[in-house]
Amino acid sequence: MKAVSIFSIPKNLPVHERQKRRHMLASLGIAWLVMMQVMMFAFPGYLRGDYIGTESLAMLDTAIIIMNWLSFALTVPVLLYCAWPIWQGVFKKSSAHSMRVNMDWPVALGILTAFIPSVIATVNQRGEVYFESVSMFVAFLLTARYLEFCAEQSARYSEVGVPAKLDQERTIMTAKADKIAFAFVMIQILLAIVSGIVWYLFIDRAHALPVLVALFVMSCPCALSMAVPTASSAARGIFLNNHSFTPEQQEFVLSLTRKTANQNLYGSLAWHILMAPLAMFGLVAPWVAAITMLISSLVVAWNSWRLYKKFHNQGFIASPDWTAGKAVQG
Amino acid sequence: MESLFLLLPVSFLFVIGIGIALYWAVFSGQFDDTEENGKSILEDNDSNHT
């Protein structure tokens, strides 16, 4: 029998869910495509310093202006199509998922504070543009959300053989993760605005915007919101592949799931807390901030996948780890 | 460096083309199940050859 993986498409997926998944995949792919191209267009701007005083500078500047316009033209569809769920989340009235909806605010703020000044700089033909940071931010954010969505979706459509306790655990852990993420985002936004103002008034006016954008990008709790869904969907995969669990084996898997979810949660929190001061001192460029965000969400996905893989590789019952793990747990 | 002024629009058009192709591929179901189609050749019905 083919093993059920964390992110596999459930067989009985209804049409609208399948369509939703396709939309997410399409927007993810397009966002990554545009991100790579816009990064190409941004790169000559980084090298401009080397050409100051040479005769090709004038031509390079013309090329940079053209590249800025092209980046702008590529970023607009990303914001309108790929980032559509984010704008929807911002304008949606708070529902059962009100915590979740609130998370779209910092993201939207981050995108707009990077995008609007970039458009102004493009039109005026001077100043820095951050289109590459915007498209990276959207692409990485969508990566995290796609992983989270797949994990969550496959959990919803293959309930057979999964103990009800997993659902209870999941609800409890989700509530906890939401609470932590909410506090985290509030503090991060406050920090971002204060550091932006301090940079603008006292340190370096030109550098205030990148600092603000970097902190907004880092305030995105993608990794935090992935922590629980990926862990519980790993547990679901384990249960679906091993039907003959005794209650205490189930309990053992559940405790490992809790452990993994907590690792995800506190690990990504620690990572963000570590990076925030660096960004406040202006050491982290917006696109570096986007990469740190991607790293934390990928590590979370990998950590959950490791939980799943542990049982998948060894065959649970015969595993020598089983007794050892139990001794440690008990 | 003059070649940039030709290459930049070309790369732009390439990205647009690839984006459209990707969109089409996703919505025609190319990525819905990446394993099943690969396996289907092994589960082929070989019984009716002459």
TrEMBL record, chain B:
It holds the Pfam family FixS. The chain crosses the membrane at residues 6-26. It comes from the Bacteria. The keyword Transport does not apply. NCBIfam families: ccoS. The lineage of its organism: Bacteria, Pseudomonadati, Pseudomonadota, Betaproteobacteria, Burkholderiales. It comes from Advenella faeciporci. This is Outer membrane protein. PANTHER family: FIXS PROTEIN. Keywords: Membrane, Transmembrane, Transmembrane helix. The keyword Transmembrane applies.
